Amino acid sequence: MNIASDSDDGLQQLMGLEVSAVSFVRDYVELHFDGPVLRALSDPLGVYGGAAWQFPAPGSLDLMRCYIGETVDGYEEDPERILGLQFGEHRFVIPLDDDSSMGPDSAHLVGVDESGRTSPRGGMWIW
Q1: For 14, which DSSP code?
Q2: Which of 7, 70, 76, 110 could form a disulfide with 84 if both were Cys (CB 3.0 to 4.6 A apart)?
């Protein structure tokens, strides 16, 4: 298992990948990339098309679905503050600070195994 100190490797694998699904699972959100899955355990926020949003505020679900089909072209990690993905002019951010976290983890990234299936065997990064 990989840990946050190896996170650059995990985030790098998302570069050039397209969001294939946005999933709302009880109290967290996932971005799917036809393989890897980024799980936001703290409430994500961002900007899409110039409109700021913060989950679970009204309208945030509609804006978050707009990320489907967008391609990751950059990322940022500040282990004390945020994990951010850039999609051209759009941004998706997972807060990592203690005040935003709902538990011991704020985000997970699950990689893909040798067959291309989502699996911790392909790496799992935890923030």
Answers
A1: T
A2: 76
